[in-house]
Please model this.
Amino acid sequence: MTDNEDIEDIGYVWSALGGDPVLVPRISVTARKGALEARLPVRELARACVGACALAAAELGARRGGLREVPGVRVDDGAVATAFVSERHLLISGRAPVTFAPLSRFWRSADGWVRTHANYPHHRARLLAALGLSNDRVSVVESVLAERSALEVEEAVYAAGGLAVALRTPKEWAGHPQGVAVAARPLVERGRLDATHARVLTPVDGGPLLPAAGLRVLDLTRVIAGPVATRTLALLGADVLRVDAPQLPELPDQHADTGFGKRSTRLDLRADRRAFEELLATADVVVTGYRPGALDRFGLSPETLAERRPGVVVAQLSAWGAYGPWREQRGFDSLVQVATGIATAEGSPERPGTLPAQALDHGTGYLLAAGVLRALTEQSYEGGSRFVRLALARTAAWLMSGVGGAGAGGDVYEGRGAGAGDDAYEGRSADAGNDAYEGPEGWLAETDSALGRLRYALPPVSFAGGPVDWGRAPGVWGSDAARWA
Model:
């Protein structure tokens, strides 16, 4: 069932991507009550991000397939809800992965709450060092944090290279310099870097319509959002090669969830520069997910990449944005929720809450993939190297404003009274859908892999004639050669 508000949300995102509004009616939505229930419109955000990504894929597919019209797009809340918690549905030979380490959690401070992130060993070590601890027992950390203010913890841990964020209300974030900087930016930053000739896209035909077939994507991302974007491009036919530093291994379970369709190699950009340059010389797309400026010394800023590889599409992702006082801060979805007021809106007077999914990560990942696909389509007509830039904090601002077309300029969400927690958000219309979301079973699959037998969430990006699953299961992290397929 599709209603006008469902399509309006997707239309807003499509407009932010520079898409032609005449294509929006090609989308149909199956709304399902109970999918991604929250006080904030998480279901609507997820639906809009996936729908816009699928439409961008269909548009590029029509261009490459020589079709007279763009294929119809199908968005099913069940598929979307399942994919947005793909890391929770993953089973590896029957074993469920660990999604958060013991020291990645909320803690009471002397004056409120603080959340830390210590999934990676080096972040855990920095957190403990900032607190002056050698003992990582939860009870010991808990007692130390209870004696300090939340802002004191935030500042000390970040100064040590770790990650901790004090709980803020929506109004506090709206008045924070970083909140102000984020709200001033568009949801999707995109643009042209030069006047390179138009991209010549080879025709695609036979089998599933793969809009990104033959395109080479250099994947320099980690964690969830960036890998979701490149996992989506791999679904659509791209040759995606993920590159990681040997000294910073990805968490094995995280790699298993986001490694579908890709190959994975290890390169030290300082010692293995020649091998990296050979990859870059024929890359069509470069996707980065590190802190803004962190890779510039390797010649990976959009401007430098366009000079070295004219016609490239550069997609950048960060937690807090490439601007404002927090532009160089590390961050993850869970911490952005705490800083921006989402944890307050989803919580109660007794304890902060969380979204039903790491929706900032997943949503921003699909938006980033959509931005790449739209850039490729635009290049086929107009040429020019392109950049696309997104930030988790900007996606959070959009969510807090109610999704729709308000962007970050609408009223700050203040919850539902003092409890802010009595009722779940059930959609803006009286009928959130004739069908109910009764669980993920219809959108899960299994396959054998080098990691063991995998149960995983199927991709939610769907259009007529398009792929329904990845053609490759994830392999062992870093085990592939540093070369294109």
Observations:
- The first strand starts at residue 27 and ends at 30.
- Residues 260 and 474 are 5 Å apart (CA to CA).
- The longest helix spans residues 42-65.
